[in-house]
Design brief:
globular; 301 residues; 7-stranded mixed beta sheet; alpha/beta
């Protein structure tokens, strides 16, 4: 893994592989990490978007991600999310490493989703429908292939050129429509949409859905129909009921209660879920950045 020293701090040019990140996240969840101990994300509005501050402490490490979200950036050919991650020694809080926040976020988000898919999806799940065309969409295709035998990918996007470009990267991928969820084994929602991107009634009973596009309480990618049919799994109860619009809005409409939510850590520790569609709603939490950043650091030390 490329690295260099920067003012006494190791600069890591790349996060670990998706496989390494998946293993690190699952190990932390089975090792006693409690996602609900994460401090709430600090969100500061600015005229062109948001600043995000995400600190965490676990095991031998501490760290903080400072990121920006600029919704208009994709139209400028720039990333929507930018930032850096500072990894520190836990006991002394001495800075140890600085990581590219974009690469870290891309890998850790998809890796958490892959852990959820590995715990929830049918063993032979092979047909994936992806909503979105950005870095998260591509990361999720790669991550899901590490835990399931994905042989067909259908890409659904709003921009025809970007949709075709993503599908063209894989010989087993094609461009599709929202109706393709009706024959999906896996569905990944990686969009900035504020409203549902498909009809939840069309999702098969055996399917697993992952929604990662939003951490805002008034934005959602899946509808009440799907939530009402599904076992809903979240990273942490507190973060989900505070930030996950898919969860918050479903609770407001009465189709979901906080007691219905299943924490991902409980699944990793052996809890089973009922039959029917499974939905994993992710908002992205600080512990995930810390665990993956620590894995990246240890890989080169």
């Amino acid at each position: 893994m490329p690295c260099a020293m920067l003012v006494g701090v190791l600069f890591l040019d790349a996060p670990p592989t998706v496989r390494q990140a998946v293993d690190a996240i699952r190990s932390a969840l089975t090792g006693g990490l409690d996602p609900d101990q994460d401090p709430p994300r600090s969100v500061v509005p600015v005229p062109t978007g948001q600043f995000l501050l995400m600190p965490a402490f676990w095991d031998r490490y501490a760290g903080v991600k400072v990121a920006s979200v600029a919704p208009d950036n994709p139209a400028r050919g720039l990333p929507r999310i930018q930032g850096h991650y500072l990894l520190m020694d836990g006991p002394t809080l001495t800075p140890k490493a600085l990581l590219d926040g974009i690469a870290l976020t891309s890998v850790r988000t998809a890796a958490v989703s892959a852990v959820a898919v590995d715990l929830l999806a049918e063993p032979d799940a092979e047909r994936l429908v992806v909503f979105g065309t950005g870095p998260q969409a591509q990361s999720h295709i790669e991550a899901f292939r590490t835990v399931r035998p994905v042989r067909e990918v259908v890409v659904v996007g709003r921009n025809a050129e970007r949709t075709q470009a993503l599908a063209a990267q894989y010989p087993f991928a094609r461009v599709g429509t929202p109706d393709d969820v009706s024959s999906a084994d896996l569905i990944a929602c990686c969009t900035s949409s504020r409203t549902p991107v498909f009809d939840g009634a069309k999702v098969p009973e055996h399917a697993t859905v992952v929604a990662v596009g939003s951490h805002e309480p008034d934005a959602r990618e899946v509808d009440d129909v799907l939530i009402g049919r599904s076992t809903v799994v979240v990273e942490g109860i507190g973060a989900a009921t505070r930030e996950a619009g898919d969860v918050v809005l479903a609770m407001k409409s009465g189709v979901l209660a906080a007691d219905d939510l299943v924490p991902l850590a409980e699944l990793a520790q052996g809890r089973t879920v009922a039959s029917g569609p499974r939905l994993f709603k992710s908002v992205g939490m600080a512990w995930e950045d810390l665990v993956v950043a620590a894995a990246a650091y240890e890989a080169v030390m």
